UniProtKB/TrEMBL annotation:
Protein's name according to its UniProt entry: Two Component Transcriptional Regulator, Fis family
GO annotation, biological process: phosphorelay signal transduction system; regulation of DNA-templated transcription
Keywords: ATP-binding, Nucleotide-binding, Phosphoprotein, Transcription, Transcription regulation, Two-component regulatory system
One annotated GO molecular function: sequence-specific DNA binding
Organism the protein comes from: Thiobacillus denitrificans (strain ATCC 25259 / T1)
Length: 424
């Protein structure tokens, strides 16, 4: 047989005996003397089986099993062990997700049979890493305050508007506000807000309706969202919207319905970008790496302290998705189990060099008007390419109202593709 087994027991004699027996059976055995050591090991990798003692000095095994189950880390079989086991304890452990129960002293044949069966059962389990939640977003003062604000409004069913930069964690915050065991519906097909907006409430019940980037809705979609909001008010359901653009500015420019804006923003929460709580980046990066190891995307890897410092000092304009892509690249392409600062520099170098284009090659002996037009043409062509042709984002980045932007592009003879919903 083969596989990685974690033995968690505070008695050194039992740890060594189990290690010797299981190593002879062909298993790779790792030892933990208490719950703290077991937590640290589990945070770094997913063993194929855990033999977990119930009675330990720092945290009992049932409590640790409950922690793993609640945190989404119980993705491997766990066999509980106890020299003072009772039927009630065995039943409780099984209810929490334990695969089996062994009483000490354990007979050799019984141990090997139980381990072999649990390992085989574990092979069939899906290797799913826990998704990132608010606890994984960091422990800085800024994030602690964000958690408190969200907790204060969690029981309220008024609409919530999450504001900030794209990728800063909107959905994580929305999931925190979501009531467990109730429906979660994300509005992905925005055309339904025009054709049949009330269809979203058919299975919603008292659940959460989540709409990312409400700022991208056209006029007809905004109207449909208003009708949808009318229907769910007072029903126990909640609408959570997110926006990476200033809706105040869009209202002032006539791009967003003012009445809908005031209804959506009755509870507005600002979500900070990564660079404003960069002290959390090492923990977030370690969490992302552990997810990849858990899912079998890469072998066991570890980010060194210098590597984590390099990640922390980068500004991450793309926030969490950009950091996640960098960590995935590091995990898959690193040539050693330890990812060091050289690896991080290799991955970050193209991002550092991808600075905005500068105005080069504009003659300085031409009239000011011509030089200004040449610069503006270069500026807007760069923005259009960078924002994938989205005039909404180009207007936001340039600080221009869209009607003014279109006039400017026409004046400069710049051709562009315009999304249909942007003119509604």
């Amino acid at each position: 047989m083969s596989g990685h087994i974690l033995v968690v027991d505070d008695e050194v004699g039992i740890r060594e005996l189990l290690s010797e027996i299981l190593t002879d059976e062909g298993y790779d055995v790792h030892l933990a003397e208490n719950a703290e050591a077991a937590r640290a090991f589990r945070a770094q990798r997913r063993p194929d089986l855990v033999l977990l003692d119930i009675w330990m000095p720092d945290t009992d095994g049932v409590t640790l099993l409950k922690e793993w189950a609640g945190g989404g880390q119980l993705t491997m079989p766990v066999v509980m062990m106890s020299g003072h086991g009772t039927i009630d304890t065995a039943v409780e452990a099984t209810r929490l997700g334990a695969a089996d129960f062994l009483e000490k002293p354990v007979a050799l044949a019984k141990l090997i049979d139980t381990v072999n069966k649990a390992i085989k059962r574990g092979v069939a389990l899906p290797r799913r890493a826990p998704s990132m939640d608010l606890s994984a977003l960091g422990r800085s003062t800024l994030i602690a305050e964000l958690k408190k604000r969200l907790a204060q409004i969690a029981g309220n069913t008024a609409p919530v508007l999450l504001l900030g930069e794209a990728g800063s964690g909107f959905e994580i915050c929305a999931q925190f506000l979501h009531q467990p065991a109730s429906p979660w519906i994300e509005i992905k097909d925005r055309a339904r807000l025009v054709s049949d907006p009330l269809s979203f409430v058919e299975t919603l019940g008292n659940g959460t309706l989540y709409l990312p980037e409400v700022c991208e809705l056209g006029r007809l979609e905004q109207k449909g969202l208003g009708l949808l909001l009318d229907r769910i008010e007072g029903s126990g359901a909640r609408l959570v919207c997110a926006s990476s653009r200033s809706l105040d500015a869009m209202v002032a420019a006539g791009e967003f319905d003012s009445r809908l804006f005031y209804r959506l923003s009755s509870l507005a929460i600002q979500v900070p970008p990564l660079r404003e709580h960069r002290e959390d980046i090492p923990d977030i990066a370690n969490f992302m790496l552990a997810q990849l190891v858990e899912e079998g995307v890469c072998p066991v890897r570890r980010l060194t302290t210098p590597a984590l410092n390099q990640l922390r000092n980068f500004d991450w304009p793309g926030n969490l998705p950009q950091l996640n892509n960098a960590v995935r690249t590091l995990a898959v392409t690193a040539l050693a189990s330890e990812i060091d600062a050289v690896d991080v520099n290799r991955v970050l170098a193209p991002m550092k060099h991808a600075a905005p284009a500068v105005a080069q090659g504009i003659p300085l002996d031409i009239p000011l008007r011509e030089a200004r037009d040449a610069f503006e043409r270069m500026y807007f062509e760069h923005l259009i390419q960078k924002e994938g042709g989205s005039m909404t984002r180009v207007a936001d980045k340039s600080g221009l109202e869209r009607t003014h932007l279109y006039r400017k592009l026409k004046q400069l003879n710049i051709r562009h593709g315009r999304r249909l919903d942007e003119d509604l």
